[in-house]
Design a protein that fits this description.
Elements (H helix, E strand, L loop, with lengths): L11 H5 L6 E9 L3 E4 L4 E9 L2 E5 L6 E3 L4 E4 L5 E5 L14 E10 L5 H4 L4 E4 L7 H16 L4 H27 L6 H4 L1 H12 L7 H7 L4 H12 L3 H19 L4 H7 L5 H12 L3 H9 L1
Antiparallel strand pairs: 1-8, 2-7, 3-6, 3-8, 4-5, 4-7, 6-9
């Protein structure tokens, strides 16, 4: 039985919303000395060291990390950082003992706030020996091979692998948290009331939810629920509901043949005009144009 304060099974939607968020991975073959900078942005950055070693230097002042072969780092909140070679050549001989590193690197453009990502630390560091998730290793190997060989069908295979990799990385980190200490578990999972409220929102995005109604679902007063939800998710309930509706709408526009009016109703909008305005506010593009771009 799950009790308040204990970790709960994640709502599947917390993982589904991570997919199809414009992952763009590259396979880089680098020879020491090397370094590259990733500017602060709204993108979630992901790096995997396939060969060699490097150092992660966050520009926000966080401690440096040494990242070895097979290790993986996820910068969940778009923190600016530098990835640099971990070896130094002899003085005056910059090409001597040049070491090769191979790194998979890329990022995910997240258009709407995702509560599971918001709950993670700025830097998620998964060492190879602490990663029992076989799916992560398998997809990393496949991605590396596809990007190196550029085989027929790669333009279809690579995006699918990118989609699958991010939720598997998050799951591996959650498993590692469960092994080490419950105190590291994100509040979206450890707070039963908030996890339940998220399930309700995800199951019925079309419902005219109010903060009071959601609070009643989990036996909390309006003010207590709003406070706990905002602390756990990173934004107030009404803001999260609005963003979630647009996440669902984007999926329907991309994966279904429903017309715009039907999509609007599925996410709680009786007015197609109001829906289009809300969608463009989150995605920066009209829903019809989004559908055409997704189909291209």
């Amino acid at each position: 039985m799950t009790t308040p304060g204990s970790s709960v099974r994640p709502d599947e939607q917390l993982f589904v919303t991570h997919t199809r968020q414009s992952g763009h991975m590259q396979r880089l073959e680098l020879h020491s000395p090397w370094a590259f900078c990733v500017a602060e942005s709204v993108r979630t950055a992901l790096h995997v060291v396939l060969e060699g070693a490097c150092r992660l230097v966050p520009t926000a002042g966080s401690p440096q990390l040494r990242v070895g072969r097979g290790d993986l780092i996820l910068l969940t909140h778009g923190t600016g950082h530098v990835l640099a070679d971990d070896s130094s050549p002899p003085p005056g001989r910059p090409d001597a003992n040049s070491r090769r590193s191979i790194v998979l690197t890329g990022g995910y453009q997240v258009n709407c706030p995702l509560p599971l990502l918001a709950s993670l630390p700025d830097v998620v560091y998964i060492q190879s020996y602490r990663c029992p998730e076989q799916g992560v290793r398998a997809i990393v190997d496949l991605l590396g091979a596809e990007l190196e060989e550029d085989r027929p069908g790669a333009r279809t295979v690579v995006p699918a692998l990118e989609d699958a990799l991010l939720p598997l990385v998050v799951r591996a980190w959650l498993d590692d948290c469960a092994e080490r200490s419950r105190e590291h578990t994100p509040k979206t999972l450890s707070d039963l009331a908030i996890a339940t409220a998220l399930e309700r929102i995800h199951a019925e995005p079309e419902r005219a939810w109010t903060i009071s109604a959601l609070g009643r679902e989990v036996a909390l007063s309006r003010s207590a629920f709003a406070h706990r939800f905002t602390r756990a998710v990173g934004e107030p309930p009404h803001a999260y509901l609005a963003h979630w509706r647009m996440t669902v709408a984007a999926r329907l526009l991309r994966d279904s043949d429903l017309n715009l009016a039907a999509v609007a109703l599925r996410v709680g909008y009786a007015s197609e005009f109001a829906f289009a305005k809300a969608f463009k506010r989150d995605y920066g593009i009209a829903p019809g144009s989004f559908r055409r771009q997704s189909a291209a």
